[in-house]
Amino acid sequence: KEWPSVIAMPTSVDEVQSVVKMAAGEKVAVLSGGHSPMCMPDGAFLINMRKMNKVLLDPAAMVVKAEGGAKIGEVDAVLKPHNFAVPLGTHPDTGIGGLTLGGGIGWLTPRVGLAADNLVSAEVVVADGSLVTASADSHADLYWALRGGGGNFGVVVSFTYKVFAVGGAEGFEPGHVLAGTVPFLPDAFDRKTVIEKWGAESLSTSADNVQMLLLVLGGPCVAVFTHHGTMEVAQKALEAHATGYGETMPPKDGVKPMPWNAGVQTL
C-alpha cells in the first residue's frame, strides 16, 4: 500500500519552518484538509497542516485569514454569524490549501470568481525555510504563481481572502437565499438530455442564479438551485428552471428560502 515515509504535524509557523529545513532534498508533499488521496504520495515527506486550522475574520476590512490546514467548513463557521461568504469550494470537508492553489471553483464563482481570484495574500514558508508574504505588493511573482499554479512553490501557512455579504435580498431574511435540490428522476428524464440542456442554459443565466448539476453515484441528475436575487426574481427563475422537457416536470418543492452558509453546505 502506498504511504508516506515521514508524517510531520506542525502546530505553528516556527515548526513548519523547522520541518521544511529538515525535509531538504526529500520528496515533500503538503496535506491541507486531506480531502484528496493525492495528498498522501508513496515515500513522501508529508507535512500535515491539519493542526493549523485557526480562522480569523476582520469584518471591517471584509477579509478572513485562515491557516493552511483549515477546511471550508471551518472557514464558513466563522463567517456564518455575519452572513458572509468566501468563494471557496462546494464541500465543507475540502481543505482550503489545495483548492485555492489549484484555482478553486465554488458556489460564489459565477458572482465573484475563483478562490484564487479573491486571495489577498498568503504567508508562505519557502524551500530555504524562510517566511515570506506574497501579495500584489510583496513577492508579486510568487503571488502570481500561487493563484492556480499548484502547491510546488512552498508551504502556505495562511491564506487571506476577500469576503462577501450573502443573502438577505428583498423578500428574504438576513443571510437567506432561495435554494434547494431539483431531482430529475431517471424513469422520466434522459441523463444526456438533462446534462446538455443544463449546460446550454447555464451560459445564459445571471450571476445571481448560481446552480450546479450533480450526477449522484452515476445515477440520476440532481440540480442544486440557488439564487441571490430578490424573492420575485428568484421565484421567476425557479419557475423557468428545468422547463422545456415536454409535459414532464421535475419536482421543485425542495427549493425554499434557507440560510446561505448552513443551507448550501447541506445541499
Short note summarizing the structure:
This protein has 267 residues and is of the alpha+beta class. It has helices spanning 13-22, 72-79, 96-101, 109-112, 140-146, 191-202, 231-240, 260-266; strands spanning 6-8, 28-31, 45-48, 55-58, 63-67, 84-85, 119-125, 131-135, 155-162, 164-165, 176-184, 209-215, 221-227, 256-259.
Helix content: 10-25%
Main sheet?
A: 5 strands, antiparallel
User: How do the strands line up in the largest sheet?
Assistant: 4-5-9-7-8
Low-confidence runs (pLDDT<50, min 5 residues)? none
Question: Got a strand count?
Answer: 14
Q: State the shape.
A: globular
**H/E element string?**
EHEEEEHEHHEEHEEEHEEHEH
- Integer-rounded radius of gyration: 21 Å
Mean pLDDT: 92
Topology, element by element:
Layout: E1 6-8, H1 13-22, E2 28-31, E3 45-48, E4 55-58, E5 63-67, H2 72-79, E6 84-85, H3 96-101, H4 109-112, E7 119-125, E8 131-135, H5 140-146, E9 155-162, E10 164-165, E11 176-184, H6 191-202, E12 209-215, E13 221-227, H7 231-240, E14 256-259, H8 260-266
Parallel strand pairs: 1-3, 2-3
Antiparallel strand pairs: 4-5, 5-9, 6-10, 7-8, 7-9, 11-13, 11-14, 12-13
3D architecture notes:
The protein is α+β, with helices and mostly antiparallel strands and 267 residues long. It has eight helices and 14 strands. The protein has helices at 13-22, 72-79, 96-101, 109-112, 140-146, 191-202, 231-240, 260-266; strands at 6-8, 28-31, 45-48, 55-58, 63-67, 84-85, 119-125, 131-135, 155-162, 164-165, 176-184, 209-215, 221-227, 256-259. Strands 4-5-9-7-8 form a five-stranded antiparallel β-sheet. The model has no long low-confidence stretch (mean pLDDT 92).
